[in-house]
Fold this protein.
Amino acid sequence: MAKFKFQLEAVEKVRIQKEQKMLEELSLSQRAYQEKIAQKRALLDKKQKMFIEKNEMMSRDASINDIRLLEDYITGLKQQVVRSDQAIIRARRFLDQAMRNYISARRERMMIDRLKEKALEEFKLEQSRLEQKQLDDLITMRARLNHGPITDDFTGEEEIA
């Protein structure tokens, strides 16, 4: 029996490689997005701690300069939170784009997979037909060897098969 060879095997390899690359990019984008979210959480936690520290300083009658310095630091943290929000939005856009690229690459690979499956089914069908033809030819040759030439029972003439 002949071995199945997919005609678009090179295209299939390229599509698989592209899908893997897009999956890696998606993974990197997800990691970057999660890092941005973690950075924002850290900033918010730090800001919360500074608010608590500021309230404690005010209750201890700390100097106005120390309180003002802490308020300036809190203001800087607020600005960093805003920049962090913008970075999260950018990271989300990259993540969405990476997801679209991956889905597109996956669809392309699946299309090749469907073509391969169809070609394999056609190959199997053709192989089945060839095997059946070979069996039929073998049976015909055996019949000729065992019984001599095939004759028409009514006229006694040989048939040409």
